[in-house]
Amino acid sequence: MDAIVDSPFLPVLSACVIVALAFAAAARLSGSRTAATLAAPAVFLVAYVVTYQKIPTFPPVGAANKVFYVAVAVTLAALALDAFASLPRWALAGLASLVAAGWVGSTKLANPDSIGLVLFPALVLGGGLALWGLDRLAAEPRPSGGGAAALAGLAAVSALSAPALLFGGSSTGVGLCLGLAAGAAVLSADGFLAPRRLGPAAMLGAGSGLLAALDTIALVTRNADPFALALIALAPFLGPLAARLLPPALERRPVVAWVVSGLAILSPLPVIVALLLLRHDNPLAT
Amino acid sequence: MRFLAPLALASFAALGVSAPAFAGADYKIDPSHTHVLFMVDHLGFSKMIGLFGDTTGAVAFDPANPAASKLSVDIKTASLQSQFGPRDTDLKGADWFNVAEFPDMTFVGKTFKKTGDKSGELTGDLTLLGVTKPVTLEVAFNKAGVRPTDKADAVGFSARGSLNRSDFGLKTYIPYIGDKVDLIIESEAIR
Asked: What is the ipTM of this complex?
């Protein structure tokens, strides 16, 4: 029990769960799709502020500070585009990934080397794929899709990203990931009990922030493991795939589809951890 | 007053200089005999010690007017070592020293105040992560003379000080990792 109370992750976990509950309550009371949509980005921003203990000054200097504003910018842009334009959601995901990698990596991209020139398009593509995969879940009808499934997917992808960030030289990013995972899990459970639709800003806003953190270790400090990143990019597609493999009788049961989809997205975790342990120094070794 | 000149020089040198800095600079920091260490609280159990191994600098010094002396120090942040590779990677990453985007930490000495026969306070501007704040170091002059090993005209000094890392926007994991950072600097400058 002491280990939990003394954990440096307790503040971020608590804050994210509280914010998630508050947004869930607001969405239920108001019936507002916007409140439900903004919940996940809000959880990400709170996770950032509690983990880094600051709201970065604007304009942000340094990649870690840009992560916060990537999430803010993509959330607002996705809200606006959803309301006033009719861009396909895959295009929004691609744009969000482009903004994340381009802004976070701008210092390096100003004087690109050969590795950067390969990394940048790969990260935009992989990030766009991951964001589209998550947002696609939100847009799919139940029982295998919907807001609850997308939020479970976001929680799972956050959990997958934690070891990638830890081994990539960002122990701070672990707190960010755990906070987002906890908050998204709470929102997912609430979304399962009270199903509601989510706008693209939900997955793109929170997901782009997470993506920006991963872009930082990939583009700026160059410590990211490419295999781990590839698995994270593909993970959101494992949910619908697993749900489709279920026997029809089970696939039609929302609780089964929801649990199986979420666990399927989380399933690469042991592979990612094993890969990182095999290919990198263990930052937790004493 | 006689001691003040070498003390001022020593104190300037102490801050770690790299730099091509000034025309007619008298002394240059000797990187092989300059050590910039920092200590920060780790969960209340101990102090974690880190070291920057690449420090250079230049001092322009007028013995008749030590207060007008100039100092510029450049510490390469990528030279950080803490005796544990994964932690070094973390500390050099974007969440801490962000060495990819901020490869240099600089100190420019501004004012010197004598506090004893062989000691004084040197205040200057430290620039870290793009943020510049004043930092004061307590400087002790150790020795001036010709080094027997290489016949270089040398001065040596020790400096101590502290800063709050949060002043430079480096707030990660406070209070688990302490806000206050103690500095230990040992340096020689030669000409």
From this structure: 0.81
